[in-house]
Structures are given as structure tokens and as C-alpha cells.
Amino acid sequence: MPTPPDHLERLIGTAVRGLPPRRAPRTLESQVLAEIERRLAQPWWRMSYAHWPAPVRLLFLIACAALIALVVRASGWVISDVQSGALAGSLPNIAPAATSVSATLAAASSVARIIPPLWIYCGLGLVAVMYTTLFGIGAAAYRTLYVNR
Amino acid sequence: MLNPKDSARPDDFAGFMRAYQDMVFSTAVRMTGNDAQAQDIAQEVFLKAWENFGQLRASPSAGGWLKTVTTNLTLNFISRYRKRWRFFSEMRRDDEEGDEIADQFEAPEVLLPGLDAEERRELIDEALTRLPDHQRLPLVLYHFEDMPYDEIARRLRISLPKVKIDIMRGRARLAKTLASRGLDAEQLRN
Prior knowledge:
Strand content of chain A: under 5%
Largest interface: A-B, 37 and 54 residues
Radius of gyration of chain B: 19 Å
Number of helices of chain A: 5
Shape of chain B: globular
Strand content of chain B: under 5%
CATH superfamily of the largest domain in chain B: Winged helix-like DNA-binding domain superfamily/Winged helix DNA-binding domain
Shape of chain A: flat
Oligomer: heterodimer
Distance between the termini of chain A: 29 Å
Distance between the termini of chain B: 59 Å
Order of helices and strands of chain B: HHHHHHHHHHH
Structural class of chain A: mainly alpha
CATH topology of the largest domain in chain B: Arc Repressor Mutant, subunit A
Number of strands of chain A: 0
Number of helices of chain B: 11
């Protein structure tokens, strides 16, 4: 007669209760200590930020803040120069690039005006249906193959 | 984070390690069923302990911390091989016949009677390595790490019914193996 599950659970629970741990290999301690020695021998710049000396960490933070401030200020200068046209002389490629971008946008907007709105709505609807279908197939596959096992 | 350089010397840490290395290694080896993998995991655990040694050295819950880290690292380690593990877990295997035989097995009232703790430990650890991964891991988490079924299902990302079935079948197999080993040991003694 097969053993009832409750009895098996009690049986195994009793058998494993209070077991002494298995002895670790003798090499474990020497391996760990050797790795620690190796890490201690490393110079600070090869370690993670948390292990850097405090003055170096402070210096690093100050340098980062200065760099961020410089980037923000430089962006401000560039933007104001572009707006005032001061850069036009020094950067002659900007004007043709701006012209081609605006021409592309104008072409795209005229194409959008030609297409009937119904087509656009149908296209958007098709994209939504395809997205939902693929999402549903993915979810069903996940539940079937991954979760319910 | 405390810098271990400021707070400890390797000599202090060696004593700490000696106190806990058997527990850490046992936890990892029972979960993985593989000595080499368990040793790698134990090394990783103690390197983490070294990083936090300033707090751990005087903490009464250092053992609990190590146990939790070992369990988590071992589960992470196993999840790296998850696809392969699941593949084997889901395959219809020849050893499922073993499950059916174990399901029909009539267990004795007591397993391994008359053996001391060290002898029992040896036989149980050996029998655990014979279990398939998908049965050993949840069984060890339940019986050795006191993890409830739902937590095991969540951590292993498998369904609760599957966890219960795997543990039940693992118990039956383990009991069958231990019953035969116990008889052998008794016969040897007599």
C-alpha cells in the first residue's frame, strides 16, 4: 500500500532534523583568504568607487559637478549663438542642413494631407489589432510554456 | 559600505570563516548536489561576508545573514542554468518510472534507525545527490531551509502544484533510498 503523503513528510522531516553540517573542503579557507589578499593588494583605482579613499571620492564628485556645469553652460552658449545667427559664419553647413530638414517636413506634411483620413484610421486600427494579437499570443505562450509548469 | 581594510585583518576573518564554513558549504551542496559548484558559491559568500565584516563580526545574526546570502546566491547560480534545468525537468524521462515505483513504495515507521547523526548525515547527503534536480532543490528548500511551498514556487518561478508534486515525489524517492540504505547498514552492523 502506498505511503500517505503526510506520513512521508513527517518521516523525512524527522530524518533530516538536527543533522550536522557537512565538512567544507580544506581548500575553501585558503582560496578565500588568497582572494582577499589579492584584493587587498590591488591599488585603489582598480577597486569599486566605494573603496576609494575619501579625498579622492570628494575630488571625483567635484570634478563631475564641474563637468556638468561646463556642459550646461556650453550648451547655453551654443543655443544663444545659433539663435542670434552668430554661428552662421563659423558653421556654414548649418543653413543647408536646416533647409533640407524643413523641405523634408514640408513634403511629409503634403503627403499626409493627400492621404484620406479613413486610410489613416484604418492603418492605425490595423496596427492596434496586430499589436494586441501579438501581445495575446505572447502572453498565452508565456502562461502555457513558462508559468503553468 | 565599510571598507574591510579599515575594520579587519584576514587573520580575524579566518576565525570567522572557520566557524561558519561547514554550514555555508552544506547549504550550497545540498541545493546544487555538486561539490565544485558549492565550493565556488561558498567562496563568493565569504567574499561578500568580508566586504561586510565590520558589521558581521560582532553581529549575533551573522549565521542567519550567511545562510540567507548562501541560499540567494545558490538560487542565482542555479537560475543561470535555468533553461537547461527546466528542459530536463519537463522532459518525459525514463526516470519517471522511478517516481511511479517510489509512489507505490510503503515506507517504514522510522528511517535509518540506530544510526548516529553523522552516519545519517552521510547517507542522507548521498541520497540527496541521487535525486533529480527538479525534486532535490524544492525538497531541500522545504525541509532544510524551512521555506514554505508558496515561497519556493515564487523563488523557483514554477507553479505551486508542481512544487508540491516535485517535493512529494522527491520525498518518496528519498525515503525509498534511505530505507534500503538503512537496511544495508543494519545488516552490516549485525
